[in-house]
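tool=predict chain=A
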Amino acid sequence: MNKHPYFSTLISVLALGGLLSTPVLAQDDSTTALEEVIVTATKRAESLQDIAMSVTVMDEQVLEQMGAVGFFDYATSVPNLSFGHIADGTFTSNGVQIRGIAGFGTTGFYIDEIPIPESMNPKVIDVLRIEVLRGPQGSLYGARNMGGTVRLITKRGDPTMTEFKAHATAGTVDEGTWDYQGDAAFNVPISENAAFRGSVYYVRQSGLYEVEVDNPFVTGDEMSLKNVDEGKYRGLQALITWNVTDTFTVEPRFMYQKSNLDWLPYGDHSPDNFTNFRRVFLPEPNEEEWSIASLTLTWDTEWGNFVSATAFLNRDTDEREDFGGFMNWFAGVLPGGTEDYIAPMALIIATNDRDQFTPGNPLCFGF
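tool=predict ok
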């Protein structure tokens, strides 16, 4: 089975309020020049032009222009980065490879300074920029970053301003139906040195595939199910930025996302086959729910900047895959078997409850 790329035709966009990040290209009355792009890929704030490594950076405006919602949307624009499902299931099988170095645990995935499983797909909401470092990055991010590192840098609270922005998009999908997204983010000062930043989102992605079942013993007649791989995603983030002193900052944060997929997003035999034929039928609902509670401490000194990021991740997945189609095919090719044979129904159920604690060891962030 092959996964078909997901394409959406955007038909409407609504943006309310808010501030856009500085674009990479800036133009005055006479000349067009490249502005300086600051990244923290090397554990210090540096100009992208001064970093002696291969880094791809996409800021907020670039992500907004490409309509990026999740990992698959922006990953296609990163050189030498490939991805795909390398095992059974959907939520836990996503694999990321940089420069062809494949396998679980070979590419690091971070939200700010917090490592998360590479199979997770956090939605790109209220993100300042994305940095992709080609590996190996063992000296900076550990041995599990042999291929490289993907970092989502989120926005921080700002005590000097009040901000609100919202987006709504809707579109149609070839071989599918409507999909839409709504999100909002806001920044509210709490005091002269503290601010609360929050965001919420809901994403509905249309399914592409159709399942036709011809099993009179189960359905009584032929049954057709359309857009079986429809997905729904909802989530939120809450962050407090407290500048205790001019050099010491405390940031507690909570992130949450829940995802539901009605069916596995695969096509039989070829990528352009949008109809899967079945002699037996069992639903394949898939669900993922994760949350991250974290505390980040930042201390600026004359020797350098030190960051301590403590986090607790809880991730629950429930994935189901209908195995009856394979069993029916296998029974048909056995001696004496026929293609009209209806094998017993079979369902693979995989559940996982993962807790991950990241201790907040101070890391040198820059000198």
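The first strand starts at residue 9 and ends at 17. DSSP finds four helices and 24 strands in the chain.
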